[in-house]
Amino acid sequence: MSRWPAKVTIKEVGPRDGLQNEAAPIATADKIAWINLLSETGLSYIEVTSFVHPKWIPQLADAAEVAAGICRKDGVTYAALVPNEKGLERALGAGVDEVGVFMSASETHNEKNINKTIAATFPVLEAVVKTAKQAGKTVRGYVSTVFGCPYEGAVPVDQVLTVADRLLAMGVDELSLGDTIGVATPKQVEDVLAEVLRRFPADRIAMHFHDTRGTALANIVVSMEMGITTFDSSLGGLGGCPYAPGASGNVATDDLVYMLHGMGIDTGIDVERLTKAALFIRDKIGRPLSSRYLQTVRS
Question: Rounded to whole angstroms, what are the CA distances from 268 to 40, 70, 288?
Answer without folding.
Answer: 11, 21, 26
